[in-house]
UniProtKB/TrEMBL annotation:
The keyword Electron transport does not apply. Keywords: Iron, Metal-binding. Its cofactor is Fe cation. This is Phytanoyl-CoA dioxygenase domain-containing protein 1. Pfam families: PhyH. InterPro entries: Phytyl_CoA_dOase-like (IPR008775). The keyword Plastid does not apply. GO terms for molecular function: metal ion binding. Belongs to the PhyH family. PHYHD1 subfamily. It comes from Strix occidentalis caurina. 2-oxoglutarate(2OG)-dependent dioxygenase that catalyzes the conversion of 2-oxoglutarate to succinate and CO(2) in an iron-dependent manner. However, does not couple 2OG turnover to the hydroxylation of acyl-coenzyme A derivatives, implying that it is not directly involved in phytanoyl coenzyme-A metabolism. Does not show detectable activity towards fatty acid CoA thioesters.
Amino acid sequence: FREDGFLVLEHFFTAEECDSMRNQIQKIVAEMEVPPHCRTEFSTKEDEQLQAQGSSDYFLTSGDKIRFFFEKGVLDEKGNFLIPKEKSVSKIGHALHAYDPVFKQITHSSKVQQPGIGGEVTPHQDATFLHTEPLGRVLGFWIALEDATQENGCLWFIPGSHTSGITRRMVRAPSGTSTCVEFVGSEPGYDDSQFIPLPISKGGLILIHGEVVHKSELNSSESSRHVFTFHVMEAKDTSWSKDNWLQPTPELPFPSLYT
């Protein structure tokens, strides 16, 4: 992990634990009620982020709620679904870990609390969006609820890319501007040949350093690729940036992992 910026732990969760999360999401999506004007496409491309998430309070205020974000091309101009809604969801966030009992149990499980482990997603570093002072205090947990392959969108990493800091941040925009968030700095170009794929089987966990460059390719298969992902921050001697889009609220302060 220290050398590459990521670590693969196969079979970290059982098939039963993965199925319990997938079944719970099916129930949540079946009961999903999102007003058409709040239906937002989820993107990691900068221009699309600013146009979709960046102009939407629905996204910016989702840190302490369970909200739904959709794949590109699944909504018409009025926000109506063009395909079955259970196939339209790209991401559900950002408080499943706090309000849903199944995901809360997984997030705070004794496995996760072990000491010492410390569509297309374009190349990025998590610290661009989740910035701390000092850097290097954010760790991503990426849990495969189904087999993740090169065909259905497994993660790709540039090994060792977590040692060069970050050059771009997404921050809350000043009030009165046309978007809720903006980018400061620029993302360097990445050589595709530097990325290596990390296919992983159902139940596997990938630990992701906050500054390692990673991406996923378009799912070109007929199979879904469901994952549960969350981040933890080392709280001791660490400052969470007030400019981050995601902020704790009085209703939901950042919970301690060990609760």
